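Q: What structure does this chain adopt?
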Amino acid sequence: MNNNLLQILACPVFKGELLFDRTNQELICKFDRLAFPVIDDIPVMLESRARRMAGEE
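A:
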């Protein structure tokens, strides 16, 4: 994930900061506990494609 791109992206739901999980290839919004997939270095920023994170994640 390009660091410059990560700095300008925001969660489409909460509008907050995203963290990149390199292991799972996901962009994480800690505020609303959503994980957006990154497929072939392209972030999929659709709420319908996001994974709801479990409490212990």
